[in-house]
Write a structure and sequence with these properties.
InterPro entries: DUF1989, UAAP1. By secondary structure, this protein is an alpha+beta fold. The protein has five helices and 13 strands.
């Protein structure tokens, strides 16, 4: 089966279920794109992406190839199989409507149609509602193509936002509901609402997590948690 491809414009949102073993590739086509991501267990929507555990158990602040993305049940949703950008963050969250209006100006669908200034928080809420979820089910998200550092005072700074042609491939270790948006990063320094699209490629050809994602003992334990969960589902 050939991979499925589509181009998602800026200020858009989408959701889909990725099956265990399949791969999702996201590409910053023009440079400067942001992709906000959340993950949920489609069989138990109470289980969701846990940013603190993802960073803590792998002793890292940045996420790149070889890292895994964890649920709050200690299981691995997916591993970063390929990354040509080299730095993705999971501490800044996403902009809401008031913050977006303050930064880029107010813009409604009635005024601007698909060029409105959509925000990441409401984008996630729209996708969550499709699965019976709401505000209380929101979690801290992952932002792709965002290099963020903390200065000596602890202030977070966005040092680099995307690069033309940069891509990230996620290999899934369990069935996963993926929510994503292409709205601006909270620390974006752009004066105008960013308009960079993102290419999405879905590959249903199954493969296990790559060896580089399992070099840490913590990730091997996480994958064993996956195996136990999947075994219980087969009994």
């Amino acid at each position: 089966m050939k991979p499925y491809q589509t181009l998602l414009p800026s200020g858009a949102h989408w959701s889909l279920v990725m099956r265990s073993g399949s791969a999702l590739t996201l590409t910053d086509v023009e440079g400067g794109a942001n992709v906000g991501l959340l993950f949920y267990n489609p069989e138990n929507l109470l289980e969701r992406y846990n940013a603190p555990d993802t960073l803590k158990c792998q002793h890292t602040f940045r996420l790149t190839a070889g890292h895994c993305l964890y649920s709050d049940m200690g299981r691995i949703f997916c591993g970063i199989e390929h990354d040509s950008f080299g730095w993705h963050e999971s501490v800044c969250g996403t902009l809401n409507a008031a913050q977006t209006a303050a930064r880029f100006g107010a813009s409604t669908y009635q005024q601007a149609r698909n060029l409105r200034h959509q925000n990441g928080y409401d984008s996630f809420l729209v996708e969550l509602a499709k699965y019976g979820l709401g505000q209380r089910d929101m979690a801290s998200c992952l932002n792709l193509f965002a290099q963020v550092r903390a200065d000596d005072s602890g202030t977070l700074q966005l040092e680099r936002q995307g690069a033309a042609g940069a891509s990230v491939r996620l290999r899934f270790a369990m069935d996963t509901l993926v929510l994503l948006h292409t709205c601006p990063h909270p620390l974006s320094a752009s004066q105008d609402y960013p308009r960079q699209p993102v290419q999405i490629e879905l590959d249903a050809q199954h493969a296990p997590l790559p060896a580089m994602c399992l070099e840490r003992d913590e990730n091997q334990r996480g994958l064993r948690n996956n195996a136990l969960y999947q075994l219980q589902g087969e009994m």
